[in-house]
Write a structure and sequence with these properties.
Elements (H helix, E strand, L loop, with lengths): L8 H8 L5 H22 L4 H4 L15 H14 L4 E6 L6 E2 L6 E9 L10 E9 L21 E7 L3 E6 L5 E6 L4 E6 L10 E3 L10 H13 L1 E2 L5 H11 L1 E5 L10 E2 H14 L3 E3 L16 E2 L1 E4 L1 H12 L1
Parallel strand pairs: 1-3, 9-10, 9-11
Antiparallel strand pairs: 1-2, 3-4, 4-5, 5-6, 6-7, 7-8, 11-15, 12-14, 13-15
Bound molecules: 2,5-anhydro-1,6-di-O-phosphono-D-glucitol and manganese (II) ion (2 copies).
């Protein structure tokens, strides 16, 4: 059975919309449309200096910006045209950005994940989640964003890699759509993604070894005995590989980042929902990651995600 392979994301969304509010699907469409434009910019990234060679402006007379700033502007602009979005919080903005006063949804975004890899042609991505605005009777406040991961309505990412892909969960499973640049469409290429039963890889920045607690060092030594190492340094790319091939990704706390490095609302919550819906597991070490409730917009947490057995083993280490 082809499971609808080749279906465009918009058709898929219309079909899924039966169980989804039309407003929510408008929100998702705006985010995905914005990512289509970021894809173009990422593809042109190597030319940024060439286009800006005459000074700080490109051929259109616009200031040459860093790709994370460009991506942030594109996606925020797109979201602000959607009257269903009440406010947006992004990794790039200290404070939330108010949207439509009548909007029903909140959006959290990492507009460009993997910024250290932009200049070297390695996979980067956009990470997003959609949440319900808790109260419509007053203007949105930052505290409205402080929800546990379990409250997410939609979670997904776009990976701008050797091809551009959208991986998303709209309520049930996880589906992957590959971008056809000619048609400008995301086409269903990976229906109902399930993390393989057998893990293949462990992914962690071993450069942090000397800054880890002994229990993390022991854990990573044991992983080395059983699994192969792969680490890119873009969460989207590391997560995507392990989701398709099986594995475990770790970003533990260390003496440089005592609370962990990855941001709960823009990175951890999203990947946790995708992992769990694909049959995997996600944890902060002390709690299933989806149960964590952040106390600040830019809060960071330790993060462990991948095959269930692997994450459970890490949880047991923390519990002992
Ligand atoms: P961002 O580029 O959005 O700031 O995120 C970078 C994050 C994440 O993508 C990745 O998993 C992690 O930083 C890599 O960190 P190290 O370079 O410390 O390994
Ligand atoms: Mn990031
Ligand atoms: Mn980022």
């Amino acid at each position: 059975m082809d499971q609808g392979r080749g279906t465009s994301f918009m058709e898929f969304l219309a079909r899924e919309q039966v169980g989804m509010s039309p407003g929510l699907s408008q929100v998702v469409s705006s985010i995905v449309a914005g990512c289509g434009l970021i894809h173009k910019q990422v593809n042109l990234a190597g030319l940024a200096d060439v286009l800006g060679v005459t000074g700080a402006t490109n051929v259109q007379g616009e200031t040459v910006q860093k790709l994370d700033a460009i991506s942030r502007d594109i996606i925020v602009r797109h979201c602000l045209t959607c009257d269903q979005i009440a406010a947006i919080a992004t990794e790039e903005d200290e404070q939330m950005i108010p949207g439509s006063t009548t909007g029903t949804y909140l959006v959290t975004l990492d507009p460009l994940d993997g910024s250290s890899n932009i200049d070297v042609n390695v996979g980067v991505g956009t990470i997003f989640s959609v949440w319900l605005r808790p109260l419509k009777s007053r203007p949105v406040q930052e505290t409205d964003f402080l929800q546990a991961g379990t409250e997410q309505l939609v979670a997904g990412y776009i990976i701008y890699g050797s091809s551009t892909m959208l991986v998303i969960t709209l309520g049930k499973g996880v589906n992957g759509f590959t971008f056809d640049p000619g048609a400008g469409l995301f086409l269903l290429s990976h229906p109902n993604i399930r993390i393989p039963d057998k893990p293949k890889y462990f992914s962690v920045n071993e450069g942090n070894w000397s800054r880890w607690a002994i229990q993390i060092q022991t854990l990573v030594s044991q992983l080395k005995d059983r699994l192969s190492a792969r680490y890119i340094g873009s969460l989207v790319a590391d997560f995507h590989r392990n989701l398709l091939k099986g594995g475990i990704f770790l970003y533990p706390a260390d003496t440089k980042s005592p609370g962990g490095k990855l941001r709960y609302l823009y990175e951890v919550a999203t990947m946790s929902l995708l992992a769990e819906r694909a049959g995997g597991r996600a944890s902060t070490g002390s709690l299933p990651a989806l149960q964590h409730r952040p106390t600040a917009l830019h809060e960071r947490v330790p993060f462990f995600v991948g095959n269930q057995d692997e994450v459970e083993q890490i949880e047991r280490t923390f519990a002992s």
